[in-house]
Each structure stands twice: as C-alpha cells, then as structure tokens.
Specification:
The chain has 19 helices and 21 strands. It is α/β, with parallel strands linked by helices and 515 residues long. Keywords: Hydrolase, Multifunctional enzyme, Purine biosynthesis, Transferase.
Length: 515
C-alpha cells in the first residue's frame, strides 16, 4: 500500500513542490484539508480531502476538521505494536508516514493595527497543534514537518536512505515541532495576559522563546560559548537590521549596539545627534546643525576612548559624515539609513561593521536578568523626562537655554552605568564618570575629564547627592547648573550649598540607575 501523507498548512510556501515530489517520485497518497487541498488539486495533483477521508464534514465554520480518530489514530499508531495495528484495521484507519502542518498566523494577526480580541481568538489554531504534538510524540514511526525550510532536507533524507527516513532526522523534526507549538502557545498566552492584565503590572507567569539567529564565535570572553536568538515569527530589531558590510557581529558588538540604540532613542531626528560608546557606556554624545558636526562633537568629547568604539546616529549617513567616520578605528556604525555615496566611502574600511536599523526607537518591552534559580523581569526605562515637571529648588533659575542643556545632560546620564555623572555644554558631553562605587568618585572623574571646559557647564547625576560635597566640588570646577533626582534626607544641605555658591539646581523626582 502507498504511504500516506497529511498536509494541512496555513503558509503554503513550497507546498506544491513538496506535494508533487511526494506523489511523483515517492508514490505517496495525499490527504489535505481546506485551502491546502484546493492548492494541491489546482496544481493537478491527486489529493483526498480530510472530510472525504474521515467521512465527517468540517463543522463550526472550520473549527473542527482534523480532530477525528481516523486522523489522530493514523498519527499515533505504533507500527510495532500488534494491538495498535488491530485497532487501525478494525476502524479502517491508514497509518500516516508524514504529517506536514504549520499554524494559523496568530502573531501576524495580533501585529495588525486595530485587531480585535475576536480576530485574535479565531486565529488560535487547535487542530494544527494537536496534530504536531501527536506526530512529534510518535516520531519513532513517522516524520513531522512544521516549516517549509524542512521540506528539501526531508526529501533528501528520503533519497539518501532508500525511502526510509533515519530516526535521527525524525527526532530533530520532533524537537522542532515541540518548540514550534511551545512558541505558538507562549505568543497566545502573552497576548491574552497583556489584554487582560492591569496596566503597569507584571504577570504571574512569564516565558520567552527564541529562534537561533546566529552562532557567535564566543561570548564576552573567548572561553564562553554564545549564540544570538530572535523572538517572534518575523525578524525585528537587530534581527531585522541590514548589515551593509564588515565582519560578523560578536556578542559584545550586539550588547553595545543595543546600548547605542537606547541612548539615540532619547534624541528625536528633528536635530542631528550622535553618540560614541565603549562597553555600553557613552564616551561622547553630541548634537549639531549637520550629522557630520554632531558626530565630530561626539568624537571630540573623548577621542581617546572613541578608538574601537560603537557609533550610533539618529539620521541616515551622508557622504560628509562617512568621511568623518573613516578617520579612526571603529567596531560598528549604526544609523537609520546610509546613502549610496556614504556606502562607497565606508567600503574602504572593509572590516568596519555598518548596519542600517530603520527603527531605532522600538526596543524590548521587558528587561530580563538571569539569577541563580530564576530571573528578574522589569519594564525598560523608557520614561520621557519633561523639564516642565522638574522642581527648581534654588534661588537661581535657569534660562530656557540652560534648561535645554540640563535636559540634554539628563538624557545622557540615564544611559551611563551607576554611579553616573555627566558634564555637558552646548549639547556636547565634556566629562563622564561611570560605574564608580561612590558618587564622589564619579564626580571627580567627570570633572577631571572636562577640565577647564567645565566653566559654565551643566552637571547631571543619575542619583541624589547624599552629602553636599559633590555640589561644592562641582561649583569649584566652574559648573553653572546641576540636575539630579533629589530624594535624599540631606537634600536641604545640597540646596543650601547650591544657593551659597550661586548654582542652579533642578530636582527631577525620577531616578535613572543603570546597573
């Protein structure tokens, strides 16, 4: 008797070619449902509709069509067990040799603007996951395929093994099927949780699945293995970025690139902005009248640290900016675009990684940190700071220009590892103190880097000042204004010192620690 294959797919990529080869080269009989059967029949291939095979019509508007003993008995029967074979014979059921199923496009449906809960519910596949799980469970006796990418390897396995697919291949396909249904269920559970949860609350259960985008040469260090995984059925974020040139991305590159994306998202594209990063910390951030001048200001802020850095730009790269970028050794450049002339200039640096990520604003909706025995989950720090909500706590008040400078410094300090201090002037960073164990140390580093340029500059602190010593140190260096969250029991001491020394001080009421 000819072998029997069940084909029931939503994504019909490669379907006809697979069906044609199964029938003409390997002599399979085909059973299919709904639109899959129509597509196969339209190609002139013999196919039996599921409803004709089972003797039961599709009911409930197609909600029930493959949930039938003749389908699941044929999938789950153990070919080496006499009792199972007797049950098949007694009930007129043929064993299946191949199950090809992919699922209703749930993730694509919920990604559409204006999708309703009813739309989402109707795109929850029931029969498909049931068949995938059953076939994966019984992979000792049949093969399950859940992706068009598996079709050609399956056919090659048939050809290479005289029509008998090796167990190792079937096991690999079973693993893929279970991961496929796990990802599908996780997407549904996440959607329903988000749709029914209170705002600003985290769910009682949370899961994440990913598909390997690339194997990385190593992790943070050469002795650590690493891989890159993407989430969702459609590549987004860095998985959807276009790499125009350069070496393969490393683990550290990707970590730095995400830090770069977060900081440039602070600066709307209405004015050119650029940042240079090293080890996830900005070493220079600048704004300018042109993209080239913005980059030059970011680079000049700390040209020593910029060597081997990551550059992020909030506008497409033009030729003038590309010329500037080739002036030093950089690891990666990312921007929302890159014109042809700029590409030609950057191509001279063959190893330089140049990426285009059109949407630099959209990041992950959760931040995950693994710890022993579990993980921590939090919302990303995407708070949009508004100086109108700040409290000016000193006698001296800022001009409009000074307030804009304080906002610039505050946007940058948010993306510096705590304890963080940033000194800026005229929309350019002058000194950055990052990751110190005490705030006084970060102040000293930032002011030392700024040097004489600190005269008339702004100082931002990601956390409050527990004592007035940092305020006094800042004033002695020439700082004109300080912006900090406030909230210390000794805020009055810092305010008193600022008034005594003629400083402007704003308290934002928002803390931006970055651990």
């Amino acid at each position: 008797m000819a072998r029997l294959a069940l084909l029931s797919v939503s994504d019909k990529t490669g379907l006809v070619e697979l069906a044609k080869t199964l029938v003409e080269e390997f002599g399979f009989n085909l059973v299919s449902s709904g639109g899959t059967a129509k597509a196969i029949a339209a190609a002139g291939l013999p196919v039996t509709k599921v409803s004709d095979y089972t003797g039961s019509p599709e009911i409930l508007g197609g909600r029930v069509k493959t949930l039938h003993p003749k389908i699941h008995g044929g999938i789950l029967a153990r070919q080496d067990l006499a009792e199972d074979q007797k049950d098949l014979a007694d009930n007129g059921i043929r064993p299946l040799d191949l199950v090809v199923v992919n699922l209703y496009p749930f993730e694509q449906t919920i990604a559409k603007e204006g999708v309703t809960m009813a739309d989402a519910i109707e795109n929850i596949d029931i029969g498909g996951p049931a068949m995938l799980r059953a076939a994966a469970k019984n992979h000792a006796h049949l093969t399950v395929l859940c992706s068009a990418e598996q079709y050609e390897p399956y056919l090659e396995a048939l050809r290479a093994s005289d029509g008998q697919v090796p167990l190792e291949f079937r096991q690999e396909c079973a693993r893929a099927a279970f991961w496929h249904t796990a990802s599908y269920d996780q997407a549904i559970a996440t959607y329903l949780t988000a749709s029914t949860s209170e705002p600003d609350t985290l769910p009682q259960q949370w899961a994440m699945t990913g598909r390997q985008q690339a194997t990385l040469r190593y992790g943070e260090n050469p002795h650590q293995t690493a891989a890159w995984y993407r989430t969702g059925s459609t590549p987004t974020g860095w998985a959807g970025a276009e790499q125009l040139q350069g070496k393969e991305l490393s683990y550290n590159n990707l970590v730095d690139l995400e830090a770069a994306r977060r900081i440039i998202a602070e600066f709307p594209s209405d004015r050119p902005a650029a940042a240079v990063l090293k080890h996830t910390n900005p070493c220079g951030v600048g704004m300018g009248d042109t993209l080239a001048s913005a980059y030059r200001r970011a680079y000049d802020a700390d040209d020593v640290s910029a060597f081997g850095g990551i550059v992020v730009l909030n506008r497409p790269i033009d030729a003038d900016t590309a010329e500037q970028l080739t002036g030093t050794f950089l690891e990666c450049i990312v921007a929302p675009g890159c014109d042809r002339a700029a590409q030609d200039i950057l191509a001279k640096k063959q190893n330089l990684r140049v990426l285009v990520l059109e949407d630099l604003l959209t990041g992950p909706t959760q931040v995950v940190n693994a710890i022993a025995g579990g993980f921590l989950l939090q919302a990303p720090d995407t708070y949009r700071d508004d100086p109108a909500t700040w409290q000016i706590v000193t006698e001296a008040k800022p001009t409009e220009a000074e307030l804009a400078e304080m906002l610039f410094a505050w946007r940058v300090v948010k993306h510096v590892k705590s304890n963080a201090i940033v000194v800026t002037h005229q929309q350019q960073t002058l000194g950055i103190g990052a990751g110190q164990m005490n705030r006084v140390g970060s102040v000293s580093i930032a002011l030392a880097q700024a040097g004489a340029k600190a005269q008339g500059a702004v100082l931002a602190s990601d956390g409050f000042f527990p004592f007035d010593d940092s305020v006094r140190t800042a004033a002695a260096a020439g700082i004109r204004a300080v912006v900090q969250p406030g909230g210390s029991r000794r805020d009055d001491d810092s305010i008193k010192a600022a008034n005594e020394l003629g400083l402007i001080m704003a308290m934002t009421g928002i803390r931006h620690f970055l651990h």
